[in-house]
Amino acid sequence: xxxxxxxxxxxxxxxxxxxxxxxxxxxxxxxxxxxxxxxxxxxxxxxxxxxxxxxxxxxxxxxxxxxxxxxxxxxxxxxxxxxxxxxxxxxxxxxxxxxxxxxxxxxxxxxxxxxxxxxxxxxxxxxxxxxxxxxxxxxxxxxxxxxxxxxxxxxxxxxxxxxxxxxxxxxxxxxxxxxxxxxxxxxxxxxxxxxxxxxxxxxxxxxxxxxxxxxxxxxxxxxxxxxxxxxxxxxxxxxxxxxxxxxxxxxxxxxxxxxxxxxxxxxxxxxxxxxxxxxxxxxxxxxxxxxxxxxxxxxxxxxxxxxxxxxxxxxxxxxxxxxxxxxxxxxxxxxxxxxxxxxxxxxxxxxxxxxxxxxxxxxxxxxxxxxxxxxxxxxxxxxxxxxxxxxxxxxxxxxxxxxxxxxxxxxxxxxxxxxxxxxxxxxxxxxxxxxxxxxxxxxxxxxxxxxxxxxxxxxxxxxxxxxxxxxxxxxxxxxxxxx
Length: 483
Prior knowledge:
Layout: H1 2-12, E1 20-23, H2 33-50, E2 53-55, H3 69-82, E3 86-90, H4 97-107, E4 111-114, H5 131-144, E5 150-151, H6 160-180, E6 183-187, H7 201-208, E7 211-215, H8 217-230, H9 232-244, E8 246-247, H10 251-271, E9 275-278, H11 283-288, H12 293-301, E10 306-307, H13 312-324, E11 331-339, E12 346-351, E13 365-367, E14 377-381, E15 385-395, E16 398-409, E17 417-422, H14 426-435, E18 441-445, H15 450-460, E19 463-466, H16 471-479
Parallel strand pairs: 1-2, 1-3, 3-4, 4-5, 6-7, 6-9, 8-13, 9-10, 14-17, 16-19
Antiparallel strand pairs: 11-12, 11-18, 12-17, 13-14, 15-16, 15-18, 16-17
Helix pairs in contact: 3-4, 4-5, 6-13, 6-15, 8-10, 9-10, 10-12, 15-16
């Protein structure tokens, strides 16, 4: 299927190119201006070497540095016009902390502070820059302005902490960018029995600018009919399925899987959505005769998250998780299901079959689900390895993100898409899920994005909730220091 192949190619060629930083090196007049200019230029060269796209200020400030208020006004205009996703303030010397704070307050995007290690004082005891001291001042003034910021430890440009910190910050910017632009295609209301997946649409809009685009099931089935009549794209999806899955359903049922996939994607594009949540049972089966799981799996593989049971908060979680991974791995939507029969810290993650095929540890099968009689589910055990598990949720006006690490382990066969995982302390995690505000749904990804998601929470206004109880370690990883 050309659509899938093209999306895979785009994912493989993508690094930080979708994130654009506003670069505003800063200095203070009583310290060496030439030294500040030198380090600003060295920083520019290092960012280019790493592959960071940035918008510079060297065409506005005469020395290419932020320290003048008139320059700051014009810099803000340039950054807004360029739609920068974050701000980076290298402190070439002490820096002008109030100009940094004014610009950061005005832009309302993630902020990264960093300064290079200071040289040894010369034989006369003269110090050129005092960059570290200036970072202390800037951090305090940003707090006064109530501007959240990320701090990368005082290190050299060639230190591994610098490159890791820049890449982590770019991923944080990607999460914030995706979150603030989220619009979810809501296909049908939640199933009646699923009171746990109810959400406050107005509050999501008021607090986070997250928008829903509700469509009734007849609009979906009507679109399915039209794409089947066109034929070409549906036939391409059918071919893709036969190439990548074992098929254990009838030809007409597979055609409906393909038509559902195409119809959802077209509706999402029409309504400008970056994720979807579908009422997957049971009214849909009466209309089209299949489960939507395999269609969801195909869309998830393309990097368009689709979650089950009209779980809007689950769709938001998937958006956050995909953005934190910088599109390098696909996420999967799962139930916390049952305890591992032999592992005290083990748990089954499972769902009827919406997981992308790149998560599978074997060739998946399009067949039948565990709890329903209609075809169209996917069956495959997911590959093992390190994972991040997370869940955005809220009630009573407060929202948080449950997150932590897990690893895939061996366990008994079960139906659907599934993987047994081991966590550091299952009983602690179980209590967090039961006591809330979380439910039995989560999103996983085969990548450690815990530090990125943790740091992004400060910019999007939700509380991080680390189930591994390792906050200091996570903060240290982002900051580039040891605990």
